[in-house]
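During the second half of the funding period, the structural biology subgroup turned its attention to how the target accommodates small molecules. The most pressing case was coenzyme A, which had performed well in the primary screen but for which no bound structure existed. We therefore specified the complex as follows and requested a full 3D prediction, including the ligand pose.
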Amino acid sequence: MPDVEFCRWDQLASDPEHERLSAELDHVFFSSSARQSFASTEERAAFRERWLGRYLLHFPEYALVALDGGRHVIGYVAGSLEDPAHDPLFADLDHFAHFGALTARYPAQLHVNLDAGWRGRGIGARLVDRFAEMAREAGKPGLHVVTARGMRNVGFYLANGFVERGAVDMGERELLFLGRDL
Ligand SMILES: CC(C)(COP(=O)(O)OP(=O)(O)OC[C@H]1O[C@@H](n2cnc3c(N)ncnc32)[C@H](O)[C@@H]1OP(=O)(O)O)[C@@H](O)C(=O)NCCC(=O)NCCS
């Protein structure tokens, strides 16, 4: 496999190529997203802010980008360490209300995406491990992701130390809370 380098996003803030790296990161985010159409540019921006922007802005030290040999962004992990159910920053994520005390036990949360051409080579697993290590070093007892039953990424998380800790029926889909002990 060609060399892949992991860089903390805060350490790339003053990189002369920051703008290009940022555009590439956005491309990985939007091309990996289950949602592909937006009614307006505002809606598209709000979607980015909800699932990526606020993590990069508020917790850049916990965001890692994966760069290929040509220093192009091919993937990332971003997230936060404190219980999001008690952070006003995440008040819009109403699914936490359904998962009771689980976020206290698994406070760290992550979002990971890889460019389609780079999937299935273990890079996602390495990004998750690096994030888990940062959270463990910060003294957090657990890490979680929220996904939906039947999604292919569920198999990825189960293979990477996560266990189903909660599920809630949201009508058209069943949300899963997957927790990993740290
Ligand atoms: C999920 C993802 C981050 C995993 O990273 P990766 O480097 O491909 O994963 P690894 O090589 O470490 O592990 C392979 C496993 O990843 C998962 N995976 C691979 N391609 C995938 C895809 N297109 N979509 C979802 N999961 C995928 C599978 O579980 C796969 O195992 P399998 O081939 O036995 O089914 C990456 O595939 C991806 O970005 N997928 C699309 C977006 C996504 O689902 N992101 C997570 C949002 S919660």
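Two results from this model are relevant to the next phase. The longest helix spans residues 41-58. The longest strand covers residues 73-80.
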